[in-house]
Protein: Glutamine--fructose-6-phosphate aminotransferase [isomerizing]
Organism: Pseudoxanthomonas helianthi
Amino acid sequence: MCGIVGAIADRDVVPVLIEGLKRLEYRGYDSAGIAVINDRDVRRVRRTGRVSEMADAAAAEGFDASLGIGHTRWATHGGVTEANAHPHISHGVALVHNGIIENHEEQRERLRALGYVFESQTDTEVIAHLMHYHLKQGGDDLLAALQHVVKELTGAYALAVISRAEPERMVCARMGCPLLVGIGEGENFIASDVSAIVQATRKVIFLEEGDTAEVTRESVRVFGADDQPAQREVHVSDVSLASLELGPYRHFMQKEIHEQPRAIADTIEAAVENGFSPALFGDKAGSVFEDIEGVQILACGTSYYAGMTARYWIEAISGLPCNVEIASEYRYRAAYANPKHLVVTISQSGETLDTMEALKYAKLLGHAHTLSICNVPESAIPRASELVCYTRAGAEIGVASTKAFTTQLAALFQLAVVLGKIRGMVDAEEEATYLEALRHLPGSVQHALNLEPQIVAWAERFAPKQNALFLGRGVHYPIALEGALKLKEISYIHAEAYPAGELKHGPLALVDAAMPVVVIAPNDALLEKVKSNMQEVRARGGELFVFADQDSNFSESEGVHVIRTPRHTGVLSPIVHTIPVQMLAYHTALARGTDVDKPRNLAKSVTVE
Ligand code: G6P
């Protein structure tokens, strides 16, 4: 969703702001803008649409400045218009904002009564006017004004502010939305996401909830929620520039699909080297895991499907009961809470608001132990969790999650085995088998990637369709769900997934010659059942597209297309079967000419409700 970048330097910062905003594009946005301080004046350019259009406009107007802020906006309060785009300006004070101000209406009334005139429908403009109001009251100090203003706001915000009266500094604040300060040589930066400034510096300070900061060329001063100076650690980010660039690929989604063997190998590296140790989940994990009697998983979107898959593993391997729930549902119901049930949140970004709020709610309900499976170091959810396991997928840019999902699965499988070992449910022989399966996983995923040419041929058949049905059983049912989600997200084909046994209870009514039915049919204990379900489809004229393991004895016939995935990989088969459904969605979207990396209406990081 929205993104922030700010810079103060001895050089022209406009290219830094533009490049930063381009690197934030992946989060999803519908307008963009920058404001700079130039000759004691604020200049601003905003555009709906792409950052490149806004950048062209800035170039045409000859923007050049050593202090500036920029923003990509994903509309919440007010439509997608230039007037609603950030930065918002009030009497020479310009600011950008991520998050939602809940008391904006009340503040708007108050400011209107004071004579302020509003040009936009946003909650953000309220903050700009409040800044000006406090500057007038309190002696023109930008930082003091910001510290006053944030105390009058309820809701979530990351803010960056500049003023024509103070060309030597920018100030910022964080509550509920990520914000960091980047430290350069004689130049400093503000960003909502390290990828926005990684071209300039890797040294970053992650602001904490309630922090404000003052950033000049030479210094960074951070203040805690009590406005007193606060010490914050300087981190060196390991996000690489290469991970943010396309290289030889056409889309980030394609690149990220192909990165999966490496991403999985990195994620399982410690387990492969040292075995299934609780330490994979943090120093305290051993004692926590010994204390638990069940698992409660909370997540959204693709991460939720990772959780659904994990449930099969956790219950089968560790014998612990495992519940999985969509975070946005969990947070609003009187859920059963057992303090001895470990709350596991799964989130690629680590900042999905619903997942974060569900985590807070779970703690409120009395859950004593929390574990975050996350891909972004130092993001909000792991920071709020007792235990953390970082997947090592690297930056994921495509809105539709791919490598984050399979690395989450790899991490969750490790969790199942570690819990099983602690509970005496996994003996040495079984552990060795699981380790062997893990070792072979990157290779099996690579084999699945080699199916791409056959999948391209299928995608041509899918491209003209309006609907598609995905079927799977057992641990492969969540993979069918993920396949349907990928297809709808990026190709806009309506797709649904069902456990194959449920077909006859409703969805079979939809099946006719126009309905492609994708079947995930690994060579496991449920294969014969799946075959019967397929007969039910064929008998109604439905066209079957079957992903079958090499050793599962399937043959093509009229209306039955078969792609052979690698030999059955046992317990990790869901991970291998994810690859072809991802590629099917990707190539179908390509054939339909949609914007694969930035599908309409969707955002990568969903930081609003
Ligand atoms: C958005 C993304 C999805 C993602 C979901 C949860 O909807 O587009 O790809 O699965 O958020 O995000 P998280 O970062 O918490 O995994």
